[in-house]
Amino acid sequence: MLAVRNLEVVYDDVMLVLRGVSLDVPAGSVVALLGANGAGKTTLLRAISGLLGVHDGEVTKGEVTIDGEPVHALRPAAIVRRGVSQVMEGRRVLAELTVEENLRVGGHTRPREIAANLERVFALFPVLAERRHGVAGYLSGGEQQMLALGRALMASPRYLLLDEPSLGLAPALVRRIRDLIAEINRQGVTVLLVEQNARMALSIASHGYVLETGRVVMDKPAGELLRDEDIREFYLGLG
Ligand code: ATP
């Protein structure tokens, strides 16, 4: 299980952005993390994957544990080796490298598993196999999102942190990405899914959390969140 306990995060020594967040991502599950812009979702993912320091952020209280072991003081590469991979918002592929080169970069922490992981990624995303020697910058938005997912899978993660994978994609592609995330989960990868698209996230998650200005304000099974009046109004536009 990935567990976050009473986590407090500060940017630039003064700005308190997470105010005591606790959340559980049980092994094997998909958990959705919802919230408006600026609520602190990306900050929470960065805190889990050890990337806060890069952004002048600091954990000032609380802890993150993976299978009971505290990881919040580890470097990002050590956290990746413990089985956590993050796909950042905006599908940051290395635009000048080929599809295969991007995937190989993603696999650098597991050099012995590169061949098997390439095969697995190409089986999940046949379009990446077709474009294997093509330059990543020329892929469509949906294909770049697949490449970003594939690159994260190259590290053989047990936990995958996804930051808005549906952002900017047309509805048919959002469904495709959702189905692929569900398939990755069926293959045994636990997923923490940050999404503005609450409908998409709650359709595959078993549980959801809502973050508001750095605090968890709702923590419920996905089915209950889908029926909640406030969620329907603010996140599903069904008010
Ligand atoms: P979004 O969906 O817009 O990314 P979010 O819920 O992911 O929103 P965060 O990106 O975690 O929210 O941002 C939470 C708060 O922290 C915001 O007020 C933001 O301006 C601030 N913040 C984020 N990154 C930094 C940084 N590197 N330095 C200072 N403040 C930051």
From TrEMBL:
Keywords: Amino-acid transport, ATP-binding, Nucleotide-binding, Transport
Keyword Transmembrane included in the entry's annotation: no
Molecular function per GO: ATP binding; ATP hydrolysis activity; branched-chain amino acid transmembrane transporter activity
Highest rank taxon of the organism: Bacteria
Domain ABC transporter: 2-238
Positions in coiled-coil regions: none
Keyword Transferase among UniProt keywords: no
BP GO terms, sorted: L-amino acid transport
SUPFAM superfamilies on file: P-loop containing nucleoside triphosphate hydrolases
InterPro entries linked: AAA+_ATPase, ABC_transporter-like_ATP-bd, ABC_transporter-like_CS, BCAA_Transport_ATP-bd_LivF, P-loop_NTPase
Homology family: Belongs to the ABC transporter superfamily.
PANTHER family: ABC TRANSPORTER SUBSTRATE-BINDING PROTEIN (PTHR43820:SF8), HIGH-AFFINITY BRANCHED-CHAIN AMINO ACID TRANSPORT ATP-BINDING PROTEIN LIVF (PTHR43820)
Identification of the protein by name: ABC transporter ATP-binding protein
Organism listed in the record: Bailinhaonella thermotolerans
